[in-house]
Amino acid sequence: MSLVLSLRFYGMEGILDKLKKIEQNIKNDRAMFTKMAVWAFKDVQDHFQKESGSSGRWPSLSQATIKSRRQGKKAGRSPRMLQDTGRLKNSLLPTTGKTRFIPDGVILYTDLVYASAHNFGTDKIPQREFMWLSNEAKRQIIEVVRKHVMHGP
Q1: Do 18 and 26 form a contact (C-beta atoms < 8 A)?
Q2: Which residues contact 96 (CB under 8 A, 6 or more apart)?
Q3: Pure H helices in the chain
Q4: How many whole angstroms separate alpha carbon 34 and alpha carbon 134?
Q5: CB 33 within 8 A of CB 106
Q6: What pLDDT, on the 0 to 100 scale, is given for residue 72?
């Protein structure tokens, strides 16, 4: 005599339909990556506004820099750090920032040659990190992904 255990799942059609819809949403990911990039660029702008990196406030400007901004060719320019001309900050706006779409995401960047020196620091330039994501931006990006996967573009 044999013993048989039979398991049956009713209503699987609805689950399979939902999984197919999720698969379609994931394949159409360009809109999701674009929304993610917009959130990231907004976050970077916030770092310029707050003059802060992932580990806190940026180092203060040197006295020589402060003096040069008060006199000569740079007189009247912005006293804010990394915003003397606004070129770096403006290169990272959602409308002007550079993006490159890759199969599993999006890369944001600026092509200004001096950007990495300020973001990472050098022997002569203190680090003023601006290319990082805050916890709030990460939460918003996760929400973009969740909505996209579940509901589509």
Answers
A1: no
A2: 90
A3: 12-27, 30-50, 63-70, 87-90, 115-120, 135-151
A4: 18
A5: yes
A6: 62
